[in-house]
Amino acid sequence: MKRRTLCSIGLAALAPTAWAQAPVVQKKPAPPTWRLVINEAVTGETNFFLLTNRYQPLADFVTAQFKGRTIGIEPVVDIKRFMAVAQGQPRPDLVFGKSVNQLAKLVRDDGYQPVVRRSDPYKAAFIVARGSPIKTLADAAQSKIIMPDEYAATTAVARAELRRQNVTATDIIHVRYQEAVTQQLQAGLAHVGVVNPTIAKKWVEQGGRVLAETQPVVNWSVLASPQLSAEAVNHLREVLLSMNTQAPAVIGALGVKEWARAERKEYMALLDYTKE
User: Fold this and answer.
1) How does pLDDT run across 79-111, given as a tens digit for each residue?
2) How far apart are CA 30 and CA 27, in angstroms?
3) What would the DSSP string read from start to end of the chain?
4) Which one of 19, 23, 208, 232 is at 20 to 30 Å from 75 when CA atoms are compared?
5) What is the topology classification, in CATH, of domain 34-121+218-274?
6) How far is residue 252 CA from its own chain's centroid?
């Protein structure tokens, strides 16, 4: 009986030592959350809840490929505010925007790295009413031209095309949204309007005419922060390009038919065109 008691005491004395010597398993810290700042320019949704939900499937797809790295979506409606956030500190890890002339400035001036772009080029359209006497862009000299927001890519490339074709002395006015361009054109408040391809198509379907188009330029894009490593950017590009076949419905819901690899030279060519 004494021997059993001594053995029990001995084992009890050893137990804390054995427990103390057991290896401690430490969990690997989760990767930090990436900030994705988005701006749909002046034709997009302005409801922050709807915008966040719209881009969540894209964020979820990237998260799954980056072993659980989460992505926080930050919608910014105003173009000027979007640029201030992108140029601020700390830099967002990713930005997606439709005002590609502003994105080009982020590439040139702030070190952002082009990742992917919408595969088809962007062209703005000059539109007129069906019965308008204006037949060419040269005829638009001395005319009142209505354009979207001054910071919009549509406006930037339209001004570039007017300059390229030496159409001067025009009276240019701006409205907040592109839908208002067609409304004011229909009301006879301007002779020529400038809109994006989607609105131009609707205008033609309703009996209006496209007078001219701008030169094609780089389209909606995803850029990566200057702080992201080349390895991370390359991996991200591969993931986004894979969505063309693996998640076409996700990017289709954003108005993107296909992603294409984005190159720095495309943004420099755009700025050379717009002289910004």
Assistant:
1) 999 999 999 999 999 999 999 999 999 999 999
2) 9
3) -HHHHHHHHHHHHHHHHHHHHSPP-PPPPPPPPEEEEEE-GGGS---HHHHHHHHHHHHHHHHHHTTT--EEEEE--SHHHHHHHHHSSSPPSEEEES-HHHHHHHHHHH--EEEEEESSPB--EEEE-TT-S--SGGGGTTSEEEES-TTSHHHHHHHHHHHHTT--S-EEEE-SSHHHHHHHHHTTS-SEEEE-HHHHHHHHHTT-EEEEEPPPB--SEEEE-TTS-HHHHHHHHHHHHHHHHH-HHHHHTTT-S-EEE--HHHHHHHHHHHT-
4) 232
5) D-Maltodextrin-Binding Protein; domain 2 (3.40.190)
6) 14
Q: In the structure encoding, which two tokens stand for residue 272, read together?
A: 């050379």
Whole-model pTM over 0.70: yes
Angle between helices 264-274 and 153-164 (to 10 degrees): 60
